[in-house]
Structure formats: structure tokens, C-alpha cells
Design a protein that fits this description.
This protein is mainly alpha-helical and 279 residues long. The chain is 71% helix and 0% strand. It has one domain: MetI-like (MetI-like fold, Orthogonal Bundle). It is globular, with a radius of gyration of 24 Å.
Length: 279
Amino acid sequence: MRTNLGRLLSGTWKHVLLIAFAVVMIYPLVWMLTRSFMPNKDILTGGSSGSAFSFDNYITGWSSLGVPFGRFLFNSMMVAILCIVGNLISCTLAAYAFARLRFRFRGAMFAVMLATIMLPFHVTIVPQYILFNHFGLINTYVPLILPKFLGVEAFFIFLMVQFMRGLPTTLDDAAAIDGCGPLRTFWSVILPLCTPALGVTAVFTFIWTWNDFFTPLLYLNTPDKYTVPMGLSAFQDSTGLSNYGALFAMSVVTLIPVFAVFLLAQKALTQGIATTGLK
């Protein structure tokens, strides 16, 4: 009896702590959602001027910047999709080479690749900007997308290398006996087994690209090419005339694609995180 009671109390406290932690984490989202329906004068004070909740902030935020907010959503979605394609192509090919092929200086090159994970992004941003400016690519989406096709995301390469190393090497031997070369082995044997790792790469690439503010701020100049984070920043005014209601309303709108992607890819995401590097 005492043992069962102790287990029940222990499980209850764990659930209470988890619920409390979940409430703390979800509170900012709930606060933003409720404020998106309030007039600007009531948002910061939390008071009520007697006005009922309305969708005025959503209507105003969608068209108050001179460019429809849907344009920002389209720009971000296009960039995110192309970045996902670039990462999946380049990172899987690089990971396959490091994990399954044998060539000179493979270990040294892999170590250099891992060292780039510890290199701050801001160290390389100046030479990258000079390079893209030299080719006249400023105010285009090329600087945001092209690096993804060149295998610069060392984190995803390392993730997929760990996953591929967990696959039996007998698969490669069997494919070689059947007459498959390295590319055919990669395409027909290894790649179909890497679905969980590919799902993790796609989801994280989408989230990071969707939320990226610094890179678009650096390369994009005209409002019609802005991505979602830059569009949201346009609602803030240093003179104190910031439209917080429209800002919160459009912030809620921008969260919808992220939630949708996570819900659709939740199984692949959890499976990939659970199996990567543990086989």
C-alpha cells in the first residue's frame, strides 16, 4: 500500500511540474493571441476601454505597410522551400561521402567540416557580402538560397553522417554485387533508409529559414522582397508610433505555417531525433 501510494504521489508531482512548465512556456503565445484582438491603447496596459474583441488588427496589419502581408508570407515560403531542397541535396551527398566512401584525407576534411560548426556566422558574413556584391546579387534571394546548395550546413551533414554510419555496410556490398556504383547505391539503397534524418533536416531548415531576420536584413532592400521577419519589424517605429496590435496579429498569422509543418512532420521529426546516432 505504501509503495503504491509513494508511486502515485511521485507520478502526481511529476505531472504537476510538467503542467506548470507547459503553462509557463505557452503563456507568451496566449498573451500575444489575446492582445492581437485588442485596441492599441489597451495592449500595453492590459486594461479595457470597453471595446469588444475584433479582427481590426488583422485587417489593418494585412494591408497597412503598402505591401500586402501575404507577399511577405509568399517570399518566406519560397525561400524556405528552396533552402530545404538545397540542404537535402547538398547535405545528403556530403554525408554519404563522409559516411560510406573511402578517399584520402577523409578524416581531416570531416574534422574541418565539424570545426565550422563552432565558427560564428558573423565571422564569414563580411567576405560573403563582398562576394555577392561583386557579382551584383544584392537585393536578390540568391545570397539566401545559393549557400544551401553548396553544403554549408555542417550541423545537418553531421546529423546525417551519424545516421548513415548506423546502417549496415552489407547493404553497400549487396548493391555492389548487383552492379551498383556509388551514386546508384546512394539513390536506391541509402537514401530511402534516411527518411527520418531527412525529415529532421527539412523541419529544422524550414523553421530556421522562416525565422531568420539577420540574413534578409543584410541582403534585401526593397519592401516587396521582404520576408516575414522583416515585414514584422516594419510595424515597429522608433518614434513611438508602433502598431502593436497589427504586429501581434501578423505574428499570430506567421505562426500558423510553423505549427502546420511541425504537426505534419511530427512523426518523422521525433523518429529522426530518437534514432539518429543510436543504432
